[in-house]
Amino acid sequence: MESFKKDNHYVPQTYLKHWMIDGKVLTYRLVVPHERCETWKALPPKSIAKLEHLYSYYSGSKDSDEIERWLDREFEVPASASIAKVVSERRLTSEDWNNLFRFAVAQSVRTPAGLHSFMKRQSETLEAVLTESMEGSVAKIDAAVTAGVKLEPAPVVDPFNKLPLKIQRVKNEHGQEGIQARVLNGRKLWIWRMEHILKSTIRRMPVHRWTILHAPEGVTWPTTDNPFTRLGVGANGEWSMEGGWGVRDTQLFMPLSPKHLLYARVGHRPPQRGTTLSLRDAAFIRMMILNGASRYVYATDTRDVEEYIPRTVSRELYVEEKKLWADWHERQSREEAEYPDPECA
Known about the structure:
The protein is of the alpha+beta class. The chain has 2 domains: 272 residues, no CATH class; 61 residues, no CATH class. 39% of the residues lie in helices and 20% in strands. Strands 2, 3, 5, 12 and 17 form a 5-stranded antiparallel beta sheet that branches. A 5-stranded antiparallel beta sheet has the order 11-16-15-13-14, covered by helices on one side. Helix 2 packs across helix 3 and helix 3 runs antiparallel to helix 5.
C-alpha cells in the first residue's frame, strides 16, 4: 500500500535537479528572521519547494492526496522526459512540446504564489459572482415555469469537480423564502479551479508556437518557487506579471535548465529553437524571472541576484508565515469538513 503523500512539492524535484551542483541546489530565501541568516544554502531538491498538505484536502470522510499523485502522473513525469531531451539538445516531437506546454500551465496555477493570488481575487469578487449566477439561474427557472418548458437535468458532475458549494433555502425577516449560495474560499476551491483549468480550460487555450532559447555565454537562468512567467504590458504601459495567455505581445516563459528557456510570444512567430539571446535581452529575461519569485530563488550562478531582488529581514513576517503554514492543514480541513464531497455528503 502506497504511503500518503503529505509533502507536496509545488516545484517538482525532477525539474529542480537541473540546477543541482554536487547533488544540491543553491537556495536564496527572500524572507529571513535576522541578518545573520546564510544568504545562500545548498539543499537537496527533496527538501525545497514543498509544503505539507498543500494539495491534500478533507473529502468529508478522510484526507485525500489524489491531487499530488495526479499532478505527478499527468504533468511531472511526462515533462521530465521532455525536459531531459531539451537539456541534451535532442529532437523534440509534437508530444514533447505538448508535455512542456502542459507542464508550464500546471506551474502557472499550482504554486503558493498562485494560491495567494487566487484567494485574494476570490475575496474581492466571489460574492458578486455568486449573486449574479444565482439570480440568473432563478430567472431562468422562473421563465421556464411561466412558459411551461421542462428544464433538462444538469449533467452528472465529474468526480474531480468537487466545488465546495452549499445551496440552502432561507427566509428573510419578512418570512419570504429565497435561496442562498455559499462557497468556501480556501484550499478546496483552489484545487477545484486548478483541476478545472488543467482538465478542461487547457484544451481551449490559445495554441502558441513555442521555442527553446539559450542563455548567452557567461549568463545562466535562475528559477524560483514561481517559475512560469506571463509578462504582459499593463494599461499604463508598465510591465505586468499577469499577462493574458491570449493577449498579443504577452511573453510566456519558464527556465528548463540554467541554459534553456521555454519561450513563446503571443501573436508572434518564435525565434528558431536554440537561438542564443543577446546579453541585453538575457539580462531582461533574467530580471523578470527573479521578479516572479515569491519566497525562494534557485540558481547555479548567484551573481547579481541579491541586487535584483533584496531579501526582507523581518522576524515578525517570518514567524507569521511559518505559523500560517504550520496551521494550514488543520484550519483548512476544519472548514472543508463543512463542505464534503458529494459521495460523502
